[in-house]
TrEMBL record:
SUPFAM superfamilies the record matches: Protein kinase-like (PK-like) (SSF56112)
Pfam families with a match to the protein in the record: APH
InterPro entries the record matches: ACAD10-like, ACAD10_11_N, Aminoglycoside_PTrfase, Kinase-like_dom_sf
Aminoglycoside phosphotransferase domain ranges (all copies): 14-236
Gene3D superfamilies listed in its UniProt record: 3.90.1200.10, Phosphorylase Kinase, domain 1
Name of this chain's protein: Phosphotransferase family protein
Lineage start: Bacteria, Pseudomonadati, Pseudomonadota, Alphaproteobacteria, Sphingomonadales
C-alpha cells in the first residue's frame, strides 16, 4: 500500500462490507485515511466474470471528467499478493439508501433524490467514451444481442437444474432483439444502493459497482432503472404502487420524460422486452451465485437464499416476454 498508494501511512485495519455476492469488498482504515479494497473471489470462477481490472479502468477514466466515482488509487493484478487481483479506491463517506421508497425522507426530498438519479444516469450516457480513452471498452454491434448471448452462456456454464421458463427465454430473446440507435458507457447495475449520496442533500457523491459496465445501448441502463416501477417495494429498490404527489416519488412516465429531455430523445420504446431481458440477466447472475454456493465459493452467508430465486426469476422474465409478444 505504501509503495503504490500516494500518501498512505499505516498501520491498517480492515473489515469486509456486508451484502453483495460479487466481488468481495473491504473497508481499510489507516493513519492516512479510509480506503476501499475490492478483489476477485478466491477459487475457480467463470473466465469473464469478476473483472476488477475492467472496473478499475472505467473509474480511472471517469474520475477526471467530474462524473461521481470514487478516486482510484491503484490496481494489482498479481494474485500472489492477497490471493486474487484487487484494486484500491477512496472510501467515499455519505449515505447509502437501500429502500427505494425512501421512508426517512419527505416527499420533496424523494422527488429531488430521484431527479438526481435520473440526471446522473443521463450524464453518464452523455460522456464521450472515445475522448476518455474507452473506445475499446466494449465490442461493436448490437449490445443486447451480445448480452443475451453472454448471459445464455453464463447460465449454461453454471446451470444446475432444468427450468422450462429459462429455456423459453433462451429461444425468445435472441430472435426479438431491439434495434440499437445509440452507444454509450453502460453501468450495467444502476440502482439506488449502488450510489452514495451526500449526507444532507440530494447529490450523488459516487456511483459504485462497475463490474458489469461496458459500451452499449443506454436504454439498457434506463430500462434496468425503470424496473423499480414494476417491482414490489419490499425494503429494496422497488416502488410499484408508491409513486405520485403524495409520496413524492415520480411516476415512471415522469422519470421517462425527464430522462428523454436530458438525453435528447423523443421517447423510449415499449419496455416489456427490456424488463424480460433484465430478469433473464439477473437469473444468470443468481445462477452463478448458486453454482458458487454449491461449490463452496460464494462470498457471503445469504448465498443459499439468493440461489433459491432462480426459478422465480425465470418465470417473472417469461411473463414480461409474453407482454412483449412471446407465444
Amino acid at each position: 500500500m505504501r509503495e503504490h498508494v500516494a500518501g498512505f501511512e499505516g498501520p491498517l485495519t480492515y473489515e469486509k462490507f456486508a451484502g453483495g455476492q460479487s466481488n468481495p469488498t473491504y473497508r481499510i482504515d489507516a493513519a492516512s485515511g479510509a480506503y476501499v479494497l475490492r478483489r476477485k473471489p478466491f477459487g475457480p470462477i467463470l473466465p469473464s466474470a469478476h473483472a476488477v481490472d475492467r472496473e478499475y479502468r472505467l473509474i480511472d477514466a471517469l474520475h477526471p471528467t467530474g462524473f461521481p466515482v470514487a478516486r482510484p488509487y491503484g490496481l494489482c493484478e498479481d494474485d500472489t499478493i492477497i490471493g486474487a487481483p484487487f484494486y484500491i479506491m477512496e472510501m467515499v463517506e455519505g449515505r447509502t439508501l437501500w429502500d427505494g421508497t425512501l421512508p426517512d425522507l419527505t416527499p420533496p426530498e424523494r422527488t429531488a433524490h430521484y431527479h438526481a438519479m435520473v440526471d446522473t444516469l443521463a450524464d453518464l450516457h452523455a460522456i464521450d467514451y472515445e475522448a476518455v480513452g474507452l473506445g475499446s471498452y466494449g465490442k461493436p454491434g448490437n449490445y443486447f444481442e451480445r448480452q443475451v448471448g453472454r448471459w445464455t452462456k453464463q447460465y449454461r456454464a453454471s446451470q444446475t437444474d432444468d427450468i422450462e421458463a429459462a429455456e423459453k427465454l433462451i429461444e425468445f430473446l435472441p430472435r426479438t432483439v431491439p434495434k440499437q440507435d445509440r452507444t454509450s458507457i453502460v453501468h450495467g447495475d444502476y440502482r439506488i444502493d449502488n450510489m452514495i449520496f451526500a449526507a444532507q442533500e440530494p447529490r450523488i457523491l459516487a456511483v459504485l459497482d462497475w463490474e458489469l459496465s461496458t459500451l452499449g445501448d443506454p436504454l439498457a441502463d434506463f430500462a434496468y432503472f425503470a424496473m423499480n416501477w414494476v417491482t414490489e417495494p419490499e425494503g429494496r429498490s422497488g416502488v410499484m404502487g408508491r409513486t405520485g404527489p403524495e409520496t413524492g416519488i415520480p411516476t415512471l412516465e415522469a422519470v421517462t420524460e425527464r430522462y428523454c429531455e436530458k438525453t435528447g430523445r423523443d421517447g423510449v420504446p415499449d419496455l416489456n422486452w427490456y424488463f424480460s431481458y433484465n430478469l433473464f440477466r439477473l437469473m444468470g447472475i443468481v445462477q452463478g451465485i448458486k453454482k458458487r454456493w454449491l461449490d463452496g465459493n460464494a462470498s457471503n452467508a445469504k448465498a443459499e437464499a439468493t440461489a433459491a430465486r432462480v426459478p422465480g426469476l425465470a418465470e417473472a422474465a417469461w411473463e414480461f416476454a409474453k407482454k412483449a409478444g412471446a407465444g
